[in-house]
Design goal:
Radius of gyration: 23 Å
Strand content: under 5%
Order of helices and strands: HHHHHHHHHHHHHHH
Number of helices: 15
Shape: globular
Distance between the termini: 45 Å
């Protein structure tokens, strides 16, 4: 972040064509390859964060510090390059995707900020970034990144798009209970709509940034679909195999681009001028797109929220009618059953079985979040924290039996409380 702040303080105004005839863009041309690598980086970024946080048992805070240091180092390297270099640029994108995801995760898991608030917060921060960027540079063209200040605004916007994409995607998939498959379909439809609109006349800068935001939940949904077990609606590749496939895809595509230079901008100044002429001609499109998206998002959120509230009330009423003694989150016996199965496997040193049951528990808990959390947010957060500790202990590369048993017994004790 300090690298962004330092670079943003610099003023490197473009002062005429004669001075900038040999200028080189610091970012790639937007081609099909650009979007392919972007989605692959998004998925790998999330699995890498999970590997450090859960499998290596670093925890969210230490993982965030490690990835923050790596991100800043790659960003400094990117700023020091004289022109677009595929390896440096895409390494920075991969690391910023991890760091942006971790920013949202820290707000949600450590500070317990609701995803609704995170989504609104990052939307405002992104809007402010664009406003200041335009006020300083008089352009938001993605073809104009050839001064340190413009590059600083570019990467700051990229950071907020990843954080916003994470918050909005998790809000749909988890908090609103749509799941990653349905969320992926919604996001894919939105991206397709913007792509078609782009081809038939939508301003290219508007289309680019909205699609860029949406590729974050798309990558998460794709990764979830590939890695989840077949019993849970996935293809059963597992997170490790999914990561290997996606990393290989990134390496091969970046190597191809480095060799062919198919994504190198030939005349960034001419393309910037065309973007600016287009923006001035079609400025009216921005408020129309914003109003349309806000109407659909707020309306859809309200409708789904009402559905969940009604379902929670019906479940509470059914439990009361059946005479079930339930706590603030209702009947949690199904979760206790799975947790006990995990404990039994751990005590028998059956780590494969324990991991299988952990996957079942995580799937069941994630699918119930939309119904349980509105019933009692404090109780839900308490259990969610205990579950995260169980996941880290059981899924660790070198699990400790005593620590895993302790985490499971603590979870069972919490689930048993009225």
């Amino acid at each position: 972040m300090q690298a962004i702040a330092n670079a943003a303080a610099q003023s490197s105004d473009v002062a005429g064509d004669s001075k900038w005839k040999q200028v080189f863009s610091k970012v790639p041309e937007v081609t099909l390859f650009f979007w392919i690598i972007k989605v692959l980086c998004t998925t790998v970024g999330e699995t890498a964060a999970d590997f450090l946080n859960v499998n290596l048992n670093f925890g969210l805070t230490i993982t965030s510090v490690i990835m923050g240091i790596l991100f800043i180092a790659s960003l400094i390297w990117q700023f020091k390059t004289k022109k677009y270099t595929p390896l440096v640029y895409w390494l920075t994108v991969a690391l910023i995707s991890v760091f942006g995801t971790l920013v949202t995760d820290n707000l949600s898991d450590n500070l317990h900020v609701p995803l609704e608030y995170s989504t609104v917060l990052f939307t405002i921060l992104l809007a402010i970034t664009f406003a200041v960027w335009y006020a300083k540079e008089k352009t938001l063209s993605i073809h104009s990144i050839f001064t340190p200040r413009r590059e600083a605004f570019y990467w700051l916007a990229i950071l907020f798009t990843f954080a916003l994409g994470t918050a909005s995607g998790d809000l749909m998939a988890e908090a609103l209970g749509l799941g990653y498959l349905v969320t992926g379909l919604i996001v894919t439809g939105t991206i397709a709509a913007f792509a078609i609109a782009w081809r038939i006349g939508l301003n290219s800068v508007i289309a680019f940034w909205f699609i860029y935001i949406m590729t974050r939940p798309l990558g998460a949904s794709l990764g979830d679909l590939l890695s989840q077990s077949r019993e849970h609606g996935g293809l059963g590749l597992g997170p490790t195999n999914t990561s290997i496939i996606f990393v290989a895809g990134i390496i091969l595509t970046v190597a191809f681009l480095a060799f062919t230079h198919k994504d190198v901008m030939r005349d960034p100044i001419a393309e910037e001028r065309e973007d600016d002429r287009e923006s001035k001609r079609e400025f009216w499109q921005l408020p129309v797109v914003i109003v349309l998206l806000l109407s659909l998002s707020i309306g859809g959120y309200y409708y789904r929220h009402q559905q969940l509230q009604s379902a929670a009330a019906s479940a509470a009423k059914a439990s009361a009618s059946a005479g079930i003694q339930a706590g603030p989150l209702g009947d949690l016996s199904s979760f206790k059953t799975i947790a006990q199965a995990i404990l039994t496997s751990v005590q028998a040193s059956d780590w494969a079985g324990a991991n299988s049951h952990v996957n079942d528990l995580e799937y069941a808990w994630d699918n119930s979040q939309a119904q349980l959390k509105p019933m009692n947010g404090t109780a839900w957060t308490h259990i969610d924290g205990a579950l995260d500790k169980v996941f880290r202990e059981v899924r660790a590369v070198s699990p400790n039996q005593e620590s895993a048993e302790s985490a499971l017994q603590s979870l069972l004790a919490i689930l048993d409380r009225p």
